[in-house]
Structure formats: structure tokens, C-alpha cells
Amino acid sequence: MFRLQGSRTLAVDLAGDAVKAKNGSMVAYDGRVTFKKMTGGGDGLRGMVTRRLTGEQMSVMEVTGQGTCYFADRASEINLVPLHGDKLYVEASNLLCTDAGLRTGTTFTGLRGGASGNGLFTTTVEGTGQVAIMSDGPAVALRVSAQYPLFVDPGAYIAHQGNLQQHLQSGVNFRTLIGEGSGESFQIRFEGEGVVYVQPSERNTLGGDV
Amino acid sequence: MSTPVVFDPMTLPSDDNVDAYTFCVELKGSQWFLQKGKMIAYYGRIDFNGIGHGRFERLLRTSFHSPLHANDWVVAEGSGKMLLADRAFDVNSYDLDDGNLTIRSGNLLAYQPSLALKQSIVPGFLTLIGTGKFVAASNGPVVFMEPPLRVDPQALVGWADCPSPCHHYDHGYMTGVLGGLRSMTGLGGTSGEEHQFEFVGAGTVLLQSTEILMAEQPTGAVPGQAGVPGGGSQPGATPRMPGQLGDLQRRFGL
């Protein structure tokens, strides 16, 4: 089972079951645990080809055994997300660890991906179980509902789950062109029902300076 | 199993911290100044406009006095709740009640237009005057200290209520031929703490708990006038560090 040991280390208690984790993210373990690199992101042959083609590459290992295994990656903050049959969309670089029973895949994100500097494709995690995602600073989970659409800076977006539509919205006008842009010209608008995770930090994005 | 707390517009705090790294501002048809690119998400209808916007002329005149770095600021206007954060640094809000506070330019994130922002005489610092709330970031939690004290230059975030900031050198280390050589070459051991800022008088000094500076925001050039610090018209434009080689003559009394 997943639990946090401090906010930057994930402890997973294994009892003969398996988890999928980012390759090389193990920092310590006790008990009998084995690590096996999964070729092509662990999505099978078709998934492997898709990942190659889409550039959403992920190197994953399968961790099995009895005992406790600790994961961490460059002191990033770790957030646990429980999934109950719904789908989580997360960047491959922000995904640390998933229950082995969850299906991972890739999906097209459209323009949003281009604006957040993450490429046009993203990773999906589907099923029932737990996922650990990483962020620069602890993530804030924000609920989106029909009456409350949410606007997110592309650089701060890390993941979302649920049934959400996303639109890239631009506030570029003539002021942007004469150098008086607001610095917040591109936003992703989320509508529908679900939860969006944002980090308290911004990646450098294509639209970040305008 | 710990489940993340999911916030919605009802449960988000109003003008308070969501966690140590994220601050939530509630706008009710009001305005806030914020540094470009520090908004991470918002609910509701909020417009972001560069400060050169004509409609803000009056607002600028009353609460924005650093015309030369206007490019780095935007005005958020509308109603809703917005989240501010800065590179995963700690953020905190401070209330000024008819007071004044001087802060390192890179640390200031946002402020209410009821405050007036001015360039400080001290280069690289900004002064806020008036009544209202502002949000500042720091590398690690902020510590409040009372003068008289001496602080490390890298740990200084700002100061309130006018204590008098000045430089302080440990002269035992810095003077004499040996001292000069030592501070130039580092041979013979410098502790790295020979230079501090000294504060005396009534007030509060804000320190961050690391010595890693946050990137500075340019505060804009000051008018090139005689008598204006940093104005660039003083003779001997480069200030002399004690222990500098050029001081040898003076050392030997020539």
C-alpha cells in the first residue's frame, strides 16, 4: 500500500504484489524485493510503439516482492491520487508510481500540450488503485464542476482526472504585440466534472512570456 | 492512506494561504497588482492586463510609482478566486496598517492597490506604503527580528518601520596589508561573514532562513541626478571595497 514518508519519499508496502515505478526511483527497500525494467513504458507492444511515435516516453520498472520499498525522485514533492475506476491524465515526467493493476496508455491532448511545453501527448492511468504523482512543491487539487470552470496556467498544470474538457484560451491582443503583454495570456480552461492538480511553480512554457 | 484535499471555490480560503507555497486571493470586483507569471490557476472571471493599459492611469498614479519596471507587473481585475505561487518558494501575506515596508524586489509577488509601491533609495529594493495586504515569497520560512542586529546580506528579505540599514564590516579582517591580501585571495581564511547589514532603531527586520537569494527583479533605473544613489553621476563611479589593491597607497599613507 502507498503511504508518504515525509512529503518527498513514497513508501510502498508489498505483500507479494507488484507496482510500476519510474525507472531508477528506488532509494531504499527492506525485505525481498526484485526490480525488472519494463520495456517501452509497460504498455505492451502496441503501447511501446505508440510511445515511441508520440515522444511520450516513460521508462518504467516493475517492483515485486515482500517488504517495503521507498521511492523518491530529485526531492520532488509526491502526491497520492486514489483512482476508483476513473482516468487520470498526467505527464509521463510527473508520474512516479502506480499500482500494477492500473492500465497506462497515451492520449492526444491537443493544443494544450503544446502550450504547456509537454508535447502533444500525455499519459493516462486508468482503473482502480493508487497513483503517486510528482510536482515541484506540493500540488493543490482543485475541483471543477459545471458551475465552476477553472482556468489554469499551462506551466503549473500537472494532472487532471475525471470527465473534463479542456480548451486553450488566449488573451493575446494588440497590447501583447507592442510589448505590454500580461504574462498570463495563455490559460487552459477546464469544464465538466473532475479534479485538476496544479503545482506552485511554473515550468518554462512557450506562451509564458507573452 | 492519505487522500489529497480537493479544493473548490467554496472551500478555498479568502486572502489566505492554501498551503505554505500557495496563496489564494479573492477578488470581488476589486483589483490586485501582481508580478507577471505568478498566477497558477483561478476560478471565476478575472482579467489580466499589462500595466500600460490606459484604463489604469489613475490607479497607477496612486499606487504604482516605479514607472520603469511597469513591464513586470500586471493588474488582475474581476471577481473570483485566484491562486498565486512562485517557483515553489514559501509565500506569506503581510498586513500593513498605515505603515511602510521595504522588501527585496524579487520577493514581492502581489499587493493590494490600497498600498503604494515605490522604488527604495536602496538599489534593488521596493517600498510599500499605506494600508493593505501584500504577498511575498521567501526561500524558506520568514523570521522576524527586532533591531539592533546585524544580518547576512543574502538572508535579508526586507524591513519595516524604518530602522536604518547600513553596511557593517569586520575591520579586524579587512584592514592592514595582511587583511587586504586575505580578503583578496581568501588565503589565511575568510569566514565569508566579514560583511553584514546593520539595523538600528525601532522596527522589524525580515529574514529568510537560507542564504540562497531569489532572482532579482529589475526595479528600473533611477533618474541620473546628482545626489541620487545609483544615479550614476557621482565621481569615482565604482565603489571601493575595503582591502582592494587600489587602496595600497592609502594604506601606506601616501
Report on this structure.
The complex is a heterodimer of chains A (210) and B (254). The model of chain A has no long low-confidence stretch (mean pLDDT 81). Chain A has one domain: Double-stranded beta-helix, CATH 3.60.160. By secondary structure, chain A is mainly beta. Chain A is built from three helices and twelve strands. In chain A, strands 1, 2, 3, 4, 5, 6, 7, 8, 9, 10, 11 and 12 form a twelve-stranded antiparallel β-sheet that branches. In chain A, strand 1 (2-4) and strand 2 form a beta hairpin. Chain A has helices at residues 44-54, 111-115, 174-177, and strands spanning 2-4, 10-22, 26-38, 60-71, 77-90, 95-99, 103-108, 121-135, 140-144, 150-152, 157-170, 186-198. The longest helix of chain A is centred in the N-terminal third of the chain and has 11 residues, at 44-54. In chain B, the strands form two sheets. In chain B, strands 2, 3, 4, 5, 6, 7, 8, 9, 10, 12 and 15 form an eleven-stranded antiparallel β-sheet that branches. A three-stranded antiparallel β-sheet of chain B has the order 11-14-13. Chain B starts with 5 loop residues before the first strand and ends with a helix.
